[in-house]
Amino acid sequence: MSVARTLAIAALASVSILSANAPADAQSNYPTKEIRWIVPWNPGGSNDIMARYLQPILKKEGFDVVVENIPGGTGAIGMGQVATARPDGYTIGNGTSSTLSIIAQERVPLKNSSFTHVIRLSVDPLILLVAGDSKLDTLQKFLDHMKANPGKVTIGTPGTNNLNHIFAAMTARAAGVPYRQVPYPGGSRVVAELMGHQIEAGVLKPSETMQQIQAGDLKPLGVFGPKRLAVLPDVPTFKEKGHDVFPYGPVVQMAYIEAPAGLDPAVRKKLADAFEKALTSKQFTDFAAKNGFVVDPIRDAELDKEIEGVAAAIKQVADQVFAK
Predict the structure, then answer these.
(1) How does pLDDT run across 49-69, given as a tens digit for each residue?
(2) Are 190 and 160 in contact (CB under 8 A)?
(3) Entry pTM
(4) CATH code of the region 31-123+251-321
């Protein structure tokens, strides 16, 4: 064998070894560049607010994330981009119960198996709100107004066929009349339309409305949950006013981090570790307490099981609510 041929074979072998080791090296050094964090809703909504608050906290952990809003399709458009991205840890997205709902109802081509579930960000209550200057300033007054105007009262929701839509429908059921659901591409649009008196009520989270509530621009009328919220102690639940909004079983609104399916377990762990440190920091837990959501960063197999359970519960409720 000639020297040239021997050197060529050695060079090829060296390249093969380097190529084989490259993924391992990349994983051990992860992250080496900015991470694209897709929020599939308009700017100013609860998920966008949370992402931008976490952004500088994550940077302290060595994770430089760039938040990108891609609204539309009740989260399906943005999360579709996550599902089709390279599973290298540099594209992540905000999964929510809203996206879980449309996946469970098979309204989009996405599946839960399209993603690697990384860590839960929050568990969020939902509330019914009206404009701050509305004369319908109690839950009973609003329900009486719905009864007096069957099929005419408008309730805005971020997206459709999701938990917000379910609870808007349950509000109408409490009144015993039809209503008009008005979907928007994000919570911030619902807030703007409420304040502009374009719709009469909205179903939103405290975390995306607290500033307007405190300023008197919005008024919460009722909580879709088993108990009152510490951050809004004077706002009654639907249940204590005699209205069951969980007739088909409990459902929960939550947000969590998703990556494309096939993410390397080592990268998944690094991502989850960084987010867990940020989520459990005093800075973020104080922020959560002021904005009325729960931080419970479950991950790995526990999160996989939770997503499966929530999806099944939402499908059962949605099949009942939207079938009639």
Answers:
(1) 999 999 999 999 999 999 999
(2) no
(3) 0.83
(4) 3.40.190.150
d(CA 197, CA 184): 15
Domains of the chain, residue spans: 31-123+251-321, 126-241
**71, two tokens:** 């609204």
Residue 228 and residue 272: Cα distance in Å, rounded?
Answer: 31
Over residues 177-221, the pLDDT tens digits come to 999 999 998 899 999 999 999 999 999 999 999 999 999 999 999
